[in-house]
Write a structure and sequence with these properties.
With 331 residues, this protein is of the alpha/beta class. It contains 14 helices and 12 strands. 44% of the residues lie in helices and 18% in strands.
Length: 331
Amino acid sequence: MTRKIAIVGAGGRTGTLFAHELRKSAEIVGVARQPQADDVREGRILVERQGGMPEQLACHVIEDDAFTAEVAPDFLFLATKNPVAPSVRHYYTHGQQEKPPDLILSQNGVVAAEEARTELESIFGARARTIRILRVSLFNPVSVKMSGDKTVIAYFAPVRLAFGVASGPDETQDLLELFLGAGIEAEAVASRDVKNMEFSKLFTNLLGVPSAAHGLTIEEGFADRGVFEEEIRALREYALVVKRSGGRFLNFRHYPTGLYAALLGAIPMSILSLFRKKIATVITKGRGNKEKGNIDEIDYYNGAVVSMGERLGVGTPVNREIYQSMKARRP
């Protein structure tokens, strides 16, 4: 039986990636606001995979107000930015169907699942426990560029991700089959480790933010010893926060975050600094030579580290300085 996935944010970075890739294994309904829906319908959203020729996003799309019970997806995929609570409330109240769809969240940070669960409980009460909340950690950076009047969404292939059940029935096989059927390299994470998956993904998100705070690329930032040391101190603060929370970093198939975190914490700064250009090369290669394109979510990056530190009684002065610097740079 073909599964139907409603992807909210089709036409945006992450929504376009998943709408384009998952069409190989599922029926896709894109959901977007009116201007972006028009861009999809009129062929102004292009997909560029790993330097290949851009191709038009071919996706049936509806506007967000047209999302009703008649759409009846098996999965509601929120590929939108944080916070998720307003979107959860909108789509689960406008599209109430006999069996509410399971929810897939791909947002950065470590609070999306908790926000969604709270919102679903406010809508459905105890029935919310029957709705799976699936967390997805996407490892492919996604960039946006303009080509005339067209928006080009670019990322490297294959798409790589980890996912797991954050709440609700603990079953991942159906979604794993959809990912694998679409050629996505997906790694299922046990529900007990979903929070650790989020911690691990945030570790990778934090890499390069101090450089960006100085207006530098990763390679430029790591070439400067002072900026490089700021990068490492920020990560060490974060590692201490995660440890104090009872969490840990995981090793994924292509991204051994646990190993990287252990090495960055154990090796003296003076030794690490000798290899800073090599480390920058490894990071940029792993990101497909793309710089971070979503640091407008700094509240959910270094801001999240600061908030966790305050809650746990752990000082995070380096992350606080980076956070304040990035906030000042935002329009």
